[in-house]
């Protein structure tokens, strides 16, 4: 039997085991600061698979003083990063398989049809916070490793499985893993891409813009300067900046994205009293960073845009909007589509799915930005989750895709790392 | 000596006493819920003047069930309304002299040059929260009464002095006084008008508008509908509604006001996460009510405006903005400029100030709306405070104006109420 068939067979026979494992993981709420119990489940599985375990609490000085460390979390105690290494027999390419264990908060509970941590299965979908982003992807990785182990296949290159914390809050977990010395010849991150392949990814970072006005009584509002009105000018102009920044992006991988690197205004806060003219307004948002752009270039683009507003409205000459770069920051990723890791995953996809994979640029940042920019590791983001379901209520994953992804990754490991018996 | 000269003389001699009294009042912080100590100072003064005292805690069922009761305060215990009546000898017109004891919060303390409750005097100005709005006006009233009492002048009509709570929060104090039975042939409210006479006043009420969007990840913001963007449409259109509503106001009293009845957006709140498309946005504001307009008419104008937005943006057809009328509500006032109370105050102004008074429509609501609409009492708003200083940091009053206003009010009382010896 060909290895592809053996793996196919194994996954068919162990389908339910994998699904049960995902259910277990989803049922363990692992929001920020609460990752330990879900990590314990991962650790148990890695032990079962006989991987070399590395479990450590991140947050040392080397991490905190790193220029790409970006976190407001002061305490990582008890919620470790977990790495399991499957040592190769030698002579093959190594690979990092990276998944994050943290999930975003469940949001408005009343909008969930089931408890967000039920892991309920209906019509081939498993529901729950984290099912798609990205515990399902992590299960694909672990099933791929388990299939290879169970079938007695020996890989030549090392497989470094990582279950990190903090992806949703700026990537400190993956950064810590890179700084701990984990490097490899390639990496796969099974974030929810709808099984598309993302060799490139948009980076992003958060900003806060503050605009001042002049207070007045609402009954004589013409005596004041409304910070809301001035901020609306900023918001409208930001759309033009977004337009201009996106005009420059001609990469065909972005053909399907209406706005390759969006500027999103996520918050708008101003005023304290209905009948006063507000004298301060604040927006918070995220600016997309192009794959070939640096953080600093994006910052500069925004800063010079804000400087230019004085030409549009005299008020801004003496009261220029102020910008802070705070909170989340995700580095862009920029792998050539012709990279051999891409070719191998594409070929495996085609073998399993009997069709060409869709290759696009990621519309959002992932820890791939850290692996590629800091770790200098070629990264492909490719996973089974439903893109539109991430961070949403009633988040779900299509279980069939999770199994297919496990199969594609197992095949890719054979080809990338090589195996003693190179039938793959 | 003519009465005008006697009063002039008395005020000159008692100038410092009045200023000290204002200082005492300003030093007693009387923000909402903390009115008792300042009221105690008023009570002491009324006792000294020999007025018939009526001190009561408002908040009975009759008040709370009144259609114009508008308050979110559940407890008035220990912070009474205070009324002092100077009974006339009979046969004259009665008058209500109404001042509110509540002051708005002091705001950003770092912006105050002195402690907001210092009552410090510099270059003829007394500084402090409430100095202008409207403890200075209240002192003008009390000095006028004291001058008349001290000079042994007997008025024919009753003078009903009121020191009410809750003006800054919807007028429950004055409404309670009306419902307790206090009516008169006329009323003066010495709110800070810069010594202008306001026979008419803009009413106003608060509104809250909620607009829904559809959440999405900021990196694919085009998949969502930003509630901020939709709310900006509402804000921009509200300016057109304001324009339309003000086109209809041709009263010459509004000639000096760029916008007679403004719509002010005082708050804009939306979003919780920089990299999410916000699915809900809320604004709070106040809409000005024309002197000849009813509350219900203004509500209807706003409600049908919101209904019309569907014609402008399809999103609003299935997601119409929702409006709530909440919190503050101030009835408009609409006294004919030729009313005898106006004529008497104007003439007294001219006698004291040696110039014509400026007569305008008030750009903001006062308790005059309640006195005139509910109590059916002709009301003139006229006081010594500095309009632009009300609710501001470093609030102040020009002390000379406080004394001049006392004189004008004293003369007006002689003429309006009549006196036994009708030399006035």
Beta strand count of chain A: 18
Order of helices and strands of chain A: HHEHEEEEHEHEEEEHEEEHHEEHEHEEH
- Give me the number of helical elements of chain A: 11
Mean pLDDT of chain A, to the nearest integer, reads: 95
Helix content of chain A: 25-40%
Q: Which shape of chain A, going by the Cα principal axes?
A: elongated
State the domain count of chain A.
Answer: 2
Task: Give the oligomer, counting copies of the same chain as homo and different chains as hetero.
Answer: homodimer
**CATH classification class of the largest domain in chain A:** Alpha Beta
CATH architectural category of the largest domain in chain A: 3-Layer(aba) Sandwich
Whole-number radius of gyration of chain A? 23 Å
Instruction: Please list the strands of the largest sheet of chain A in the order they lie side by side.
Output: 1-2-6-3-7-17
Strand fraction of chain A: 15-25%
CATH homology superfamily of the largest domain in chain A = Zn peptidases
**Structural class given helices, strands, pairing of chain A?**
alpha+beta
Report what the structure shows.
Two copies of one chain form a homodimer. Chain A is an alpha+beta fold. Chain A has two domains: 3-201 and 332-417, Zn peptidases (Aminopeptidase); 203-330, Alpha-Beta Plaits (2-Layer Sandwich). In chain A, 35% of the residues lie in helices and 21% in strands. Chain A has eleven helices and 18 strands. Chain A has helices spanning 3-27, 36-49, 61-64, 131-150, 172-179, 227-247, 295-308, 315-318, 340-353, 368-373, 399-417, and strands spanning 52-56, 81-86, 95-100, 121-122, 125-127, 159-164, 187-189, 197-201, 203-212, 216-217, 263-270, 276-277, 280-289, 322-330, 333-334, 359-362, 379-381, 396-398. Chain A has a six-stranded mixed beta sheet with strand order 1-2-6-3-7-17, with helices on both faces. A four-stranded antiparallel beta sheet of chain A has the order 11-13-9-14. In chain A, strand 4 (121-122) and strand 5 (125-127) form a beta hairpin. Chain A is elongated, with a radius of gyration of 23 Å. The first copy, chain A, starts with a helix and ends in a 7-residue tail after the last helix. The model of chain A has no long low-confidence stretch (mean pLDDT 95). At the A-B interface, strand 9, helix 6, strand 11, strand 12 and strand 13 of A face strand 9, helix 7, strand 11, strand 12 and strand 13 of B. Strand 11 of chain A pairs antiparallel with strand 11 (263-270) of chain B.
